[in-house]
Amino acid sequence: MARRTGVLATTIRFYESVGLLPPPARMNGQRIYGTDVLDRLALIRFGRKTGFSLKEMKSLLLGFGSRAKRRNAAQRKLKEMKFQREQIQLKERLLKQIALCSCGTMQQVAERVMKFGARIRPDQ
């Protein structure tokens, strides 16, 4: 399976241990995987590349038969990514203002940041 998918054997065993992959059948001590494992590994790889945690992937795979659960998982991740994107944009604005500032005091830096709209909420 590792050769067919490009996923390390240790990674496949780890995915089994955390419940992302079903326990395989065994023949003469070797793991025998069904073709469904190829699909699962492809989904896990996609999920990991798009920022899903292992816990989220497990939840997604356990509820994969339900279109509503898949849609909800995708919508939650999209909402999370939107928030992360907004946070990155805010940080970029803040850093650009600090980089452009020839200010000498922290107060002057803060005034410049506030003037140019890089407002930071107290909970961040």
Estimated structural class: mainly alpha
Helix content: 55-70%
The count of DSSP E runs of length 2 or more, i.e. the number of strands, is: 2
Low-confidence stretches: none
Please give a structural write-up.
- The protein has a domain at 1-51: Orthogonal Bundle (Multidrug-efflux Transporter Regulator, Chain: A, Domain 2), CATH 1.10.1660.
- The protein has six helices and two strands.
- The protein has helices at residues 2-5, 9-17, 36-49, 54-62, 67-100, 106-115; strands at residues 25-27, 30-32.
- The protein is elongated and about 75 Å long.
- The model has no long low-confidence stretch (mean pLDDT 82).
Based on the model shown, name its key terms.
65% helix; 124 residues; mainly alpha
Secondary structure blueprint with pairings:
Elements: H1 2-5, H2 9-17, E1 25-27, E2 30-32, H3 36-49, H4 54-62, H5 67-100, H6 106-115
Brief summary of the model shown:
With 124 residues, this protein is mainly α.
